[in-house]
Amino acid sequence: MKTIDQAFRLFLALTLLTGIIYPAVITLLGTAIFPKQANGSILSHDGQAIGSALIGQKFTADRYFWSRPSAIDYNPLPSGGSNQGMTSAVLDSAVRERQQLLMESNPGSELVPADLLYTSGSGLDPHISPGAARFQIDRVARARGLDNMGKIRLIESVEKLIEQPDFGIFGEPRINVLRLNLALDSAFANISQ
To answer: What is the mean pLDDT of residues 132-157?
Structure first.
């Protein structure tokens, strides 16, 4: 009986420590040190929340930069990749379809960047490479009816929003697609769509 009593007390103590105290302390510290990230990095437009900078969204209109493809159709609940290997006929077919769509939507462009062809591991990557953004510039400029000066402003907007690797060494240069599309809507709001 003494062993059961000790086990029960240990169970209660560890439940209190690891199930209540530790999560509460980490939540408070996270909120105090990283308030924006701890609250989801929500981005707003005209006072209305439209998405998180941490989770990719689907953009299909030609006037917007498109995100990386998602194996889970940008649904955050089953987050994950397709688990298809390089020898998969299904993967090969999906990549060929994406490549054809991208080449038709972006005529005159050369090689399609890999991050526009292959899904990310989570299926929710909010970033594309600078090369993937540059690949789409002509399509976006044409869809927004931009003249040469407008296209130059569009290129400048893309270049300005490139995020460098974290601490200068972790990751690759990248562009948050939602932030880029919001910046375009603000910068080119006076141009008829």
So the answer is: 92
